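Sanity check

After download, print the first record. It should look like this:
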Amino acid sequence: MSAPAARAAAAFSVEDFLQHTLQALGLAFNARQQQQLLDYTTLLQRWNRVFNLTAVRDLEGIARLHLADCLAALPALQCRAPKRILDVGSGGGLPGIILAIGLPETTVHLVDTVQKKCAFLQQTCGTLGLQNVQVHHARVETLQDATGFDCITSRAFSDLALLVRSTAHLLAPGGQWCAMKGQVPQDEIAALPPGISAQVDILKVPGLSAQRCLVWLQTQSSD
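Expected structure tokens:
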């Protein structure tokens, strides 16, 4: 690394970046929530080599590409105030852990097929003191839940049609899917099963110029 690049890297402050991001998104996090986000970012980088959680290795990249990206989805979720969220293919906890921090009154279930990632999630929840999270090591197609979830989220789980087919049995009546995407996935929306409606919210992620959006899916009423 060149000397200017090294100085630039050293100058980056995750804490300052977090403060700017929260302010830009209009998110009011208390001191404990902010510390949980900072600690989570550190844990994600520290254990990345062991658990292979993300291709992004440096702390600044994790903050910009993961932390801010997931925080940008929170205002829309806060408005809907779901009681129970299922985060499909949660991996290193993106966005599930961040949603659990930002929605402390919501029960967040994280599901992943990789045992070592689930171990990281369990360990992280314990370290951060997150009491509103449950971790499932399972294929979502085989996961059973008698109550159902009023919101099912995904960030890195295949296409929209597969998400719907794989998790429809877990959606509570009147519930919604919330898929985090880059550019608006018009082809995926067009390929949705009959009876599924889609709404797209364009996101503005602080510090990131790439396009991001939320795709909300819901079963159309038969009335």
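If your output differs, re-run the checksum step. Summary of this record's structure: The chain is about 45% helix and 20% strand.
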